[in-house]
Design brief:
The chain has about 375 residues and is an alpha/beta fold. The protein is built from 17 helices and 15 strands.
Length: about 375
């Protein structure tokens, strides 16, 4: 690897051959490369991506859906994943050996996924088993690293999505007395509460202080929530809701279950990204909505549904910063490295990690 390519991988700094181009020139080059590569190239784009990137996506969806579509598309040699690191990892786990999964900018991570690393998790597991013995089953949100998915698979657990979390938590509580839910405490808490688990039957494991925080009797704990969160969804508040209720009394509030418990409780509807999109799509003309999810998606819904009044639940919310690392210049750079046979930013998960992560994914897929 040359010095320029190495610096690009490490810092995301692009060569002048890219940065000197106009937006129109970059777009034209991307379209040209897509035409030349044809079926050898597959570009999945997550719902939270910018429009400047989404316009080139061969499929738009959530993280697991895009990884599954990548695995089904065995004609593609190059999967340029427009999302974040853990999503590209899942795509690599599910795709064939001959396929290369490429992340246009290696800085595109996920703060939530990074809140649970494997060393913290292994240590927590030993401590919790010391308290509860073999009564715990781990579940992890798919918004987690490959190593966490692998840990969960190795220990008899499964992955969950925001769409199937209720079903998977029900399954887990039938398997064992207790759940360790990684890495998003809010999705875990909202799901468990919906299923009738009381707040004093939930605890929070803090990986920094290595402390189990709870109220009541430690033996009554059924759900142990990892102290992690989505930096976007945690910023929707009760004050945002109060403002909407006062300014727009007729407006319905719909939020993602990664939001805080009090926000989800006071919303009119809550559900996965897919649920939010489908609810807005099927809503009646003239209806009004405040949406509590990532800003790029909210803006796209506003543009796609001019017959409805749609606002963000928090109008001052920023788009997901790490997701926005993938932009038009980085997408073009990634595609040009493919064309020049010097592909960079290849995401590769080792065989052992992949094998156990697939166990966790398959336990979920066999039950939903």
């Amino acid at each position: 690897m040359g010095l320029l390519e190495e610096l690009t991988v490490q810092t995301g700094v692009l060569p002048e051959s890219i940065t000197s181009l106009t937006k129109e020139e970059m777009e034209n080059r991307v379209w040209k490369i897509k035409k030349v590569l044809g079926k050898k190239l597959f570009i999945p784009g997550h719902h939270y991506q910018k429009d400047e990137v989404i316009q080139f996506a061969d499929a738009v969806g959530d993280s697991l859906q895009l990884a599954q579509l990548s695995s089904e598309n065995q004609e593609a040699d190059y999967i340029v994943f427009c999302g974040v690191h853990f999503m590209a990892e899942t795509a690599d786990i599910l795709t064939q050996e001959h396929q290369q999964v490429i992340l246009p900018d290696m800085r595109a991570g996920c703060s939530m996924a990074d809140m649970a690393d494997i060393h913290q998790t292994e240590k927590a597991w030993r401590r919790l088993q010391g308290i509860y013995g073999d009564t715990i089953i781990p579940l992890t949100y798919v918004n987690s690293t490959a190593s966490i998915k692998s840990f969960v698979g190795r220990n008899g657990g499964a992955t969950v999505t925001s769409s199937n979390a209720h079903k998977m938590v029900e399954w887990a509580l039938e398997e064992k007395e207790r759940i360790l839910f990684l890495p998003d405490q809010h999705l875990g808490r909202n799901t468990a509460a919906d299923l009738g688990v009381k707040m004093n039957e939930m605890a929070v494991w803090d990986p920094i202080t290595e402390e189990l925080m709870y109220a009541g009797d430690v033996e009554d704990i059924r759900v142990i929530l990892w102290k992690g969160h989505c930096s976007v969804h945690e910023n929707f508040t009760e004050k945002n809701m109060e403002h909407v209720r006062m300014a727009h009394p007729e407006m319905k509030i719909i939020v993602h279950p990664e939001c805080r418990r009090e926000v989800v409780e006071k919303s009119d509807l809550n559900g996965s990204t897919k649920f939010i999109i489908e609810t807005i799509r099927s809503a009646s003309m003239g209806s009004s909505w405040a949406i509590g999810t990532e800003m790029n998606l909210v803006k796209r819904l506003i543009a796609d549904h001019p017959d409805k009044l749609i606002i963000s639940l928090n109008p001052y919310m920023c788009p997901c910063l790490t997701m926005n690392r993938i932009d038009l210049p980085h997408l073009l750079w990634a595609l040009e490295t493919v064309m020049e046979n010097r592909t960079q930013n290849i995401i590769k998960v080792d065989e052992d990690t992949s094998r156990n992560a697939i166990l966790a994914l398959n336990r979920m897929l066999s039950r939903v």
